[in-house]
């Protein structure tokens, strides 16, 4: 399959691009600055310069591909206006370009934060969404646009906190979450399992226009997550802010529909394997 991946220099997109290429797919990466993507080029990944807000560049990027995997997003530090522009309008531009080019499948990586505070419950894909922050609000708007778009097969993959493969994501998040309650649980998934989930969505004939959560079997508490990078537990001083990130996800649907089984079902498994 020939696949265009956006966000290919980001945490998820860079690792996903390499894994899909190693599975034998022809991977094309949409990048704003090719000089930042030479590691991808060395893996045999085709680089195409473009931007989600540059319609002409998107038309060229999607030409001749079988599928689009859309990972690009503006997350930390984005104003509500920036989140809307990149994550919602940018997704609309890319999906319209893909449909015009007769791309068969569009996989959108969204976020479990679209559910909003779950109150400690694991929410499945049919749960109502009540996101709090600009980032998940923009992602939910993009999801709804995609499911209203005719003429293209859309699959949405809602991601939790993604870690592993040398990604410093956990360590980088520690300062932001230092005031969260130590017993608060957080859904997570290893980069290897995100890639497995995307590969299954690309290959599955049915069902179309479907949402999937991808998560580990266990949502560890934040004290355990912090300990995995040698940090002391959070102190609970900012529990109100922590509510925006209290989105635990139920991952049964992707297992039942597509036979997904995580390679690293628990954070402890990844640590033991030296893959955290």
Summarize the structure in words.
This protein has 276 residues and is an alpha/beta fold. The chain has one domain: Rossmann fold (3-Layer(aba) Sandwich), CATH 3.40.50. 38% of the residues lie in helices and 17% in strands. The chain contains 11 helices and 11 strands. It has helices at 11-22, 38-42, 55-62, 80-100, 134-147, 169-177, 191-203, 222-227, 239-242, 252-258, 267-272, and strands spanning 2-6, 26-31, 46-49, 67-70, 105-111, 122-123, 153-159, 161-163, 188-190, 210-213, 248-249. Strand 1, helix 1 (11-22) and strand 2 form a beta-alpha-beta unit. The model has no long low-confidence stretch (mean pLDDT 96).
Ordered list of secondary-structure elements with their pairings:
Blueprint: E1 2-6, H1 11-22, E2 26-31, H2 38-42, E3 46-49, H3 55-62, E4 67-70, H4 80-100, E5 105-111, E6 122-123, H5 134-147, E7 153-159, E8 161-163, H6 169-177, E9 188-190, H7 191-203, E10 210-213, H8 222-227, H9 239-242, E11 248-249, H10 252-258, H11 267-272
Parallel strand pairs: 1-2, 1-4, 2-3, 4-5, 5-7, 6-11, 7-10, 8-9
Helices and strands, in order, run as EHEHEHEHEEHEEHEHEHHEHH
CATH architecture: 3-Layer(aba) Sandwich
The CATH homologous superfamily is named NAD(P)-binding Rossmann-like Domain
Biggest pleated sheet = 7 strands, parallel
Net shape: globular
**How far apart are the first and last residues' alpha carbons, in Å?**
29 Å
Strand order of the largest sheet: 3-2-1-4-5-7-10
CATH class: Alpha Beta
Q: Any idea how many domains?
A: 1
Nearest-angstrom radius of gyration? Answer: 18 Å
Strand content: 15-25%
* Number of helices, counting only DSSP H or I runs of 4 residues or more: 11
Low-confidence stretches: none
Annotated CATH topology = Rossmann fold
Chain-averaged pLDDT: 96
The structural class is alpha/beta
Helix coverage percent: 25-40%
């Amino acid at each position: 399959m020939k696949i265009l991946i956006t966000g290919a220099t980001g945490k998820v997109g860079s690792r996903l691009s390499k894994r899909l290429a190693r599975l034998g797919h022809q991977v094309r990466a949409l990048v704003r600055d090719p000089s930042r993507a030479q590691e991808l080029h060395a893996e045999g990944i085709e680089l195409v310069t473009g931007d989600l807000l540059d319609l002409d560049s998107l038309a060229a990027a999607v030409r001749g591909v079988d599928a689009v995997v859309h990972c690009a997003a503006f997350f930390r530090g984005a104003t509500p206006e920036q989140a809307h522009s990149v994550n919602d309008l940018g997704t609309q531009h890319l999906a319209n370009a893909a449909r015009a080019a007769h791309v068969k499948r569009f996989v959108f990586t969204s976020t479990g934060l679209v559910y909003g505070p779950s109150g400690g419950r694991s929410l499945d894909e049919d749960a109502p969404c009540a996101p709090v922050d600009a980032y998940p609000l923009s992602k939910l708007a993009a999801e709804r646009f995609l499911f209203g778009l005719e003429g293209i097969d859309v699959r949405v993959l809602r991601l939790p906190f993604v870690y592993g493969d040398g990604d410093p994501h956990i360590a980088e998040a520690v300062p932001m979450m230092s005031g969260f309650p130590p017993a608060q649980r957080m859904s997570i998934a290893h980069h290897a399992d995100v890639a497995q989930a995307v590969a299954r969505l690309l290959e599955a004939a049915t069902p179309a226009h479907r949402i999937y959560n991808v998560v580990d079997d266990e949502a560890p508490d934040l004290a355990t997550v912090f300990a995995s990078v040698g940090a002391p537990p959070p102190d609970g001083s900012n529990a109100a802010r922590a509510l925006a990130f209290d989105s635990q996800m139920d991952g049964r649907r992707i297992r039942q529909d597509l036979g997904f089984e995580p390679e690293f079902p628990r954070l402890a498994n990844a640590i033991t394997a030296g893959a955290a």
